[in-house]
Amino acid sequence: MEDLRKKRKKEHIKYFLELEKHLNRNVFDDVTIIHNCLSEINPKEIDISTNLQNIKLRSPIIINAMTGGFYGAKIINKNLARIAKELDIAMAVGSQKIALDNPENIPSFSIVRKENPDGIIFANLSSEATVDDALKAIDMIEADAIQIHLNMPQEIIMSEGRTNFANTIDNIKELLHNINVPVIIKEVGFGVAAEDAQKLVDCGANIIDIGGAGGTNFICIENLRQTKSPYYNLEHWGIPTAASLVEVVKQVGDKADVISSGGLKTGLDVVKSLALGANATAFAGTFLYILMKKGPDVLKKHILKMEREIKYTMAMAGAKNIAEIRQRPLIVEGRTYNWLKQRGFYK
Ligand SMILES: Cc1cc2nc3c(=O)[nH]c(=O)nc-3n(C[C@H](O)[C@H](O)[C@H](O)COP(=O)(O)O)c2cc1C
After folding, report:
1. In this model, does residue 1 exceed pLDDT 70?
2. Fewer CB near the terminus (10 Å): N or C of the chain?
3. Does the Cβ of 244 fall within 6 Å of ligand 1?
4. Which of 6, 108, 216 has most ligand 1 atoms within 8 Å of its beta carbon, as the pocket-test mutant?
5. Using CA atoms, how far apart are residues 262 and 323, in angstroms rounded to an integer?
6. Is 279 in the pocket of ligand 1 (CB under 6 A)?
7. pLDDT of residue 33
8. 21 pLDDT tier (thresholds 50, 70, 90)
9. Mutate which of 14, 17, 27, 64 for ligand 1 pocket (most atoms within 8 A of beta carbon)
């Protein structure tokens, strides 16, 4: 079981890297922020700080959950944690179940806190975690918040995955009511629908990471892992990121903070997300690809450039902070517009 889990963690990275090079689409192609030719904003004076409930973030860019549990993962987490520290951005670790079951794997997660003693770090477990597991995961890395992931498509396609999802909602409720740090309910690339966001908020959730479709695709990754009987026909499953973001913001944006994620690549994607109502944005695949192929220095420079893109875009739109970019006009076209119209969010 332990070996299988380690093998799976390694294979997720290996097959992710194979898939990522084929992804060229942009999940926000249907969204355009209207240019402001009379903008008087100086990019140097733009404030990109934001918050997730009581957690203050210098930047809306978050390094999303990816890994832990084997030696290579420790190196990845160490590199990511250094970058997070140097740039003062928040970072999540991958699922800590492997370390709860076998403490020998703890260092591959705790390295993140060791590298970044004062940074904002998120723990991570699945929605079947017990309260006790969650408290241990938080304690393991002195986490500022915990992500609880929802990944049913991945589990059912994975040959060794779980198929029993009974009590997911009750378990989330239990976690939300018994954990003393903020809880982020997150998808992993299949999106969150308005109806489900409402159910989560009714359970007490106040931070949702939409994890929409269009970026890392765990059905494709699992299909590469099990070549005997791959489910190619299911690879297009999921709610596209832009549509999921608008659904969740329109449905529960006044009650929950929303993180935009799933296929985000650029600073412009960040600004479009903020303009659509997101509080913050999270990146997994893009950052992992750059880290593995080009190294930590290139990733750090990439994130710094993204922050400049964010500020330049906000200046061109005439917004000096996140509250103002939310008020700027934008256009939603094509598939995303049709989707949101049919779902009753646009006239
Ligand atoms: C190699 C890899 C491993 C991942 N492992 C986890 C995990 O352990 N827990 C989790 O919540 N999400 C995990 N994710 C999902 C990401 O956090 C994110 O939700 C998803 O990849 C969509 O974002 P992206 O398109 O920017 O990659 C993983 C992603 C990748 C690429």
Report:
1. no
2. C
3. no
4. 216
5. 23
6. no
7. 98
8. low
9. 64
- Name the percent of the chain lying above pLDDT 90: 90
User: Does residue 13's CB lie within 6 angstroms of at least one atom of ligand 1?
Assistant: yes
pLDDT at residue 223 greater than cutoff 90: yes
Closest ligand 1 atom to the C-alpha of 147?
11
Please tell me the CATH code under which domain 2-28+51-306 is placed.
3.20.20.70
Query: Tens of pLDDT along 54-65?
Result: 999 999 999 999
Amino acid letter, residue 27: V
pLDDT of residue 16: 85
